Amino acid sequence: MKFISTTCIALAILLQFVLADSEPFGVLSSHSSSHVHLLPVFDEGNGLLLGSSHSSTSSNTVSFTITDDSKVKFSNGKWAAIGSDGYLTDDNSEKDAINGWAIQNGVVTLNGNKEYYAVPTSDPLNWKISTKPVNGAIFFYLLGDTAENNSRYTFVPSGSTTEASSSASQTTQATSSVVQVSSSL
Fold first, then answer.
1. Is residue 82 within 8 Å of 76, Cβ to Cβ?
2. Can you tell me whether residue 168 is helix, strand or coil?
3. Collapsing DSSP states into helix, strand and coil, what is residue 44?
């Protein structure tokens, strides 16, 4: 009886570890020598922006947690969603949240893509975040950092596409093309 109890506890701990969300991490934009370098993501009640919050506190800055089903939950309790126009928004409903998020070596990806676009707003200090290129936008990366300052943090849920898997398939395709060329000689 003691063996079954110990086995159940060990299995429960293992499942909790396997099905655990990422640890919360802060994000900053990255594009050296640009207007959008090292800006936080924040929410002032009208969607997500990249830039500097106008409030006197940094409480509007949001941190990210990637769930085990590859969704992003923000520290304000909202979920990452993408509007039909390609802009990153926050939504109160998990059912409208977009899947495909991961963080690899400190870079936040969405369906394997690591580039985002900062679109100017009427306020020169703030930018909308787009997942699609827009005229006048500046591309940037989202860098994640944990409380332990681990810039190489990686969390790739099973439901997300990663750059590593797509580049591995490209390498396989390139290798098979080389083999076909050399076998015809």
1. no
2. helix
3. coil
- Residues 23, 60: contact at Cβ < 8 Å? no
Share of the chain above pLDDT 90, in %: 59
- The token pair at 136 is 């006048």
φ/ψ region of 175 (left if φ > 0, alpha if ψ in -120 to 50, else beta) reads alpha
- Exposed e or buried b per residue across 74-98, where buried means at least 16 C-beta atoms within 10 angstroms of its C-beta: bebebbbbbeeeebbbbbeeeeebb
Strand 41-43 with 48-51, pairing: antiparallel
* Per-residue confidence (pLDDT) for residue 44, from 0 to 100: 76
DSSP state of 130: E
44 in Cβ contact with 89 (< 8 Å)? no
Helix or strand (DSSP H, E) at 170: helix 163-183
The CA-CA-CA angle for residues 104, 108, 113, to 5°, reads: 95
Which pLDDT band, with edges at 50, 70 and 90, does 99 fall under? very high
pTM: 0.75
Query: What number of residues does the chain have?
Result: 185
Q: How far is CA 21 from CA 24, 120, 178, in A?
A: 9, 33, 41
Question: What value does the CA radius of gyration of the chain take, rounded to a whole number of Å?
Answer: 20
> Could you give the angle at the alpha carbon of 58 between the alpha carbons of 52 and 60, nearest 5°?
80
